[in-house]
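At this stage, I wrote out one protein, both as residues and as discrete backbone shape codes, and that material follows here.
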Amino acid sequence: MKIAMCASEVVPFAKTGGLADVTGALPTSLQKLGQEVIVLMPGYKAVHTGKFKVQRLKEGVSYSSLGEGVRVYFIEEDKYFNRDGLYGDKGVDFKDNLERFSFFCRRSLSLLKEIDFKADVIHVHDWQASLVPVYLKTLYSKDNFFKGTRCVLTIHNIGYQGLFPKEEFPKLGLDWGIFNIEGLEFYDQINLLKGGMEFSDYINTVSPTYAKEIQEKEFGFGLEGVLAKRRDSLFGILNGIDYSIWNPASDGFIAKKFSLKNAEDKYKNKEALQKLCSLPVTKDVPLIGIVSRLAEQKGFDILVENIDKICNLNLQLVILGTGNPNYHVLFENMMKKYPKVISLHLKFDDPLAHKIYAGSDIFLMPSRYEPCGLGQLISLKYGTVPLVFKTGGLADTVTEENGFVFDKYSKDELLLAVKRAVRAFKDKAQWKKLVLKAMQCDFSWEKSARHYIDLYGTPKKK
């Protein structure tokens, strides 16, 4: 099967979030399963200033490779992509994002023809690539080159939709006839993600539970009606994890490598983490790790409401991340109040993240909603038992057999779950079984890639 993947960011070339991790790992996993895959992305400044081997194909197009030969094509246009940021600068979106990504989408389709890559499937990701299926079904609807080409749209977080004023619609080069409730119109605005949802053959999200949740008003962000209409074409495929990066048996960042064969060496990482974080070095107190964006969506609203009670449960808490300044101040004050309990690190620090996953006993992830989640998948591999709210990908990956789950989003339910985990930690024999159970979980990209291959092979319904 020939698959063209279109995305606005791809690891290692450019990244702002989890989207890039997916588009960096999935193509190589598909290739290993015998598929022919190429990737198309914008040729950002970061691509050309990074330490990548990039070659020129023609004017406006260069290329590099992922893994063992997956070719990545960079769509270049200096006025759109020769900038430091991908989508904006200092938290403010670029004003010409509609033009930037409509150019990327149209140029991607024309490039497929130029390199004679007749894709069976074009797999697009999020709002930035959502115009590909729109153009495919309108401007290219009578082009024999794309006859039989199916389009799959993956929604990584439905909260980000690509909204623009309707006055900018002419910039898309489309007929005003599709600016309606069945097309790109959304409360008198342009909604690129909605367009992708309306024109794709299939839609998928990054976990089965999230696929159900976004059909409901609470999590649909106004698009639940479109998804309800397309429910027969909506699927959930859980993201995988790259075990070449996240594996305690080969992790160069941690104090002591370990695996199922020598799981007891995990506790040498706990000791090293406690020393690094200036916490009392002890085996008998559970160490809870948090690696997260400090935002309400991630559950910090209910965490801070009970932070004093949690800090008095005879535990330790290591927090790594940045986000809402209010949470920065609050946790800084808490660390001063409980210096032997809380260690706070307000930054992005990949080596420290590895150390927290390896050295913690419990990984706390009480997100209000979580399309898939990566932290709980990593923590399981490292034998760090996850404690999560039952939502999205967290509900699909964490159960009472490999972690701790609370199913009512409230400060009281979170506190009860933490107490339950602290009590369980005291039973060393049972805790060891729980750790080993967690480490045996398999969330490899190969499993996810096989599900995508099944989806790609599904005949068109539209």
Observations:
- The first helix runs from residue 18 to 32.
- The longest strand covers residues 36-42.
- The chain has two domains: 2-240+446-456, 260-442.
